[in-house]
Amino acid sequence: MCVNKEPLGKQAWLLLAVDGLFVLSGALSGTFLNIYLWRSRSDYAMIGWFTAAQQAALGISFWIGGRWVKGRGKMNALRVGIALSGLFYLLVLRLGPRSVDYIWPLGALLGAALGLFWLSFNVVYFEITGPGNRDRFNGWTGLLGSLTGIVGPWTSGALISAMKGERGYRVVFLASLSIYGAAAVLSLALRRRKTAGSYRWLEPVRRLRVSGQWRCMAGALFFQGLREGVFSFLVGLLVYLATREENRLGQFTLMTSAIALVSYGAAGRWLTPRRRLPGMLAGAVLLTAVTLPLLAGTRYSTLLLFGAGTALFLPLYMLPMVSSSFDLMGDSEDSVGKRVELIVLRELSLMAGRLTGTLLFVSLLPLGPKLRLFTLLLLGLGAAPFGSWFLLRRSAPALSAAGKPKPRSLRGYLRNGRER
């Protein structure tokens, strides 16, 4: 029997709407933020350190913000995250090209904003979904992300190109600021929920010291972050360098997001808890394979082939990762009571991977020709999903959630994946 058919409630749809607005604002401006900085100073290391500052601040804000979320209410933290995101773009509008002189504080501000928002979002998401509708919610999240990826970057690229640079960027940043305001207003309709108990600062460390499912999950999340850290900024930058046109980057994102729109919808329907591990394995193989065209060079055509393949196969990997980690938070009454700390552990694991990948990128810059180096780096990091799959299969929370004994062989995983 399929366990993925429970409907979503009103609060889940409201949370999806807030998420959609927040992601749309990021899609409008975030896609071109690194390009804006690059136009002011063409420095790969500067882009890398800006990303590293975001990632470090994001993880720290999760850990420190956990006390606030558990003690005073997660809705305030969510709204502060939205407000800080707006403040970031206000500062960028104020500083203009001089933003490159404030990479560390600006990166830290954006990271803190994202950390507070996503910490609160993830806690509420856990509370209003369960194993019966979590894959469905994640499918809708992917669909909304794809829709905003279609509308946002294409619109921004067209505006920036039509307005000849600086003026277009200012219009786009101002539009993002307005959408953040709309998201803050809509968030007022989300119901307040109390989180019982005191915040345990060292709970993530305690979980990692004990051999078990969370140690395996943390490792799997590290590999996910290892891939995300560099891919999140380098692919878009390479597309811009290959074309030197913002509207071509917008078209690239439009096409890849349109593919992801379909693939997330299909994956959300097909993936059940029993199919997560075989789905992840297929996703890992295919995501690694689509990096191979980059060996022919980082031309627009090869980047587009890589982007389309990634959009098509990424849901097979991402949806099981998200659903399995949150299912593991609900496997006992003790885990449910410590959901805030476990969400912090989840994000710290992702941050460790993202930061490691970004620091690897910066450290390799002095070694050789940049584009060839970037190709090899993307090929290596593109295989990181195998690490996630290997570690996740040892704890197999997806299969245990479905009440199915964990098979010991690849044949067993594939056989279970074919069963309803």
UniProtKB/TrEMBL annotation:
Q: Where are the transmembrane segments?
A: 12-38, 44-65, 77-96, 102-125, 137-156, 168-190, 216-243, 249-267, 279-297, 303-322, 371-392
Name any one GO molecular function. Answer: transmembrane transporter activity
**Where does this polypeptide localize?**
Cell membrane
The cross-references to Gene3D superfamilies, in alphabetical order and at most eight, read: MFS general substrate transporter like domains
Region Disordered: start and end of each range? 401-420
SUPFAM superfamilies for this protein: MFS general substrate transporter
Q: Which InterPro entries does its entry note?
A: MFS, MFS_trans_sf, Sugar_transport-like
Topology versus the membrane, per the UniProt entry?
Answer: Multi-pass membrane protein
Keywords (alphabetical) are:
Membrane, Transmembrane, Transmembrane helix
* Cellular component, GO annotation: plasma membrane
This chain belongs to the protein called MFS transporter
Q: Native species of this protein? A: Paenibacillus spiritus
